[in-house]
């Protein structure tokens, strides 16, 4: 009797079933839009047709460019802050205890509360949006970094000290390989969450950007343009995941293979 094949790991996600899931979502969207009417929800076809005129409009690249800048700066600042604090806290139980109440507060507080406070402190514009994104992105990266640091083999850490590894060599050859899986998961969440946070902050308190354009489309009851922006946002998130994060994950997997041989 042949041996079971359970040790080969989980099966890869089926592309065919993923495509079927997309089709089911589009069908549900179409049916719901037909029931609600064009004033409340555009159909998928209406949203697709609205993308062309939207992209050719004068304001499109101005709104998209400022939002991309805010997403890039906010996510980079938040993940860098969370990673740095996580690395330091992973080495110090006292620092972990000091940071833990702040981490809990940020993760428990509703984002809309932070948006309102940031509007009071910074007014409208990019500083407010970037501040919100940084503040909300840092805790997730911090938690994943600390958890990864606590699972690093202590004997390997001691060995790097015996061989007089500097901080960079320890980071390059010990911590990054050990932290690659949780950090990639945190980065995926940060990128997707960063897009949502920036758009939400722009809807509530900005004078430009994609969220501002969404709010204008909503005020004018232009549901086709509103859902066209939604499709473009979804396309951006898909591009970030499939063109950036998944190739990075495959590259890190190849990088780690020799260490498991």
From TrEMBL:
InterPro entries: MetI-like, MetI-like_sf
CDD domains reported for this sequence: TM_PBP2 (cd06261)
Membrane topology recorded in Swiss-Prot or TrEMBL: Multi-pass membrane protein
GO BP, one annotated term: transmembrane transport
Keyword Membrane carried by entry: yes
Domain of life: Bacteria
The protein, known as: Aliphatic sulfonates transport permease protein SsuC
Organism: Achromobacter pestifer
Lineage: Bacteria, Pseudomonadati, Pseudomonadota, Betaproteobacteria, Burkholderiales
Encoding gene per record: ssuC_9
């Amino acid at each position: 009797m042949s041996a079971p094949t359970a040790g080969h790991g989980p099966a890869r996600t089926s592309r065919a079933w993923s495509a079927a899931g997309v089709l089911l979502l589009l069908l549900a969207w179409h049916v719901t839009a037909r029931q609600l009417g064009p004033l409340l929800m555009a159909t998928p076809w209406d949203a697709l047709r609205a993308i062309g005129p939207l992209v050719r409009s004068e304001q499109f690249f101005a709104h998209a460019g400022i939002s991309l800048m805010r997403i890039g700066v906010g996510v980079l600042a938040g993940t860098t802050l969370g990673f740095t604090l996580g690395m330091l806290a992973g080495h110090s139980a006292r620092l972990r205890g000091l940071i833990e109440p702040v981490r809990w507060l940020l993760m428990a507080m509703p984002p809309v509360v932070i948006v309102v406070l940031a509007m009071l402190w910074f007014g409208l514009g990019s500083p407010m949006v970037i501040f919100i994104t940084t503040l909300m992105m840092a805790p997730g990266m911090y938690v994943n970094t600390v958890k990864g640091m606590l699972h690093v083999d202590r004997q390997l850490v001691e060995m790097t000290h015996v061989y007089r590894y500097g901080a960079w060599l320890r980071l390059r050859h010990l911590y990054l390989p050990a932290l690659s899986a949780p950090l990639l998961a945190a980065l995926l969440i940060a990128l997707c969450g960063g897009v949502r946070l920036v758009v939400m902050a722009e809807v509530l308190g900005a004078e430009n950007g994609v969220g501002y354009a969404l709010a204008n489309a909503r005020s004018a009851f232009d549901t086709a343009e509103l859902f066209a922006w939604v499709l473009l946002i979804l396309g951006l998130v898909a591009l970030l995941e499939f063109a950036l994060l998944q190739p990075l994950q495959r590259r890190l997997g190849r990088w780690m293979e020799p260490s498991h041989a």
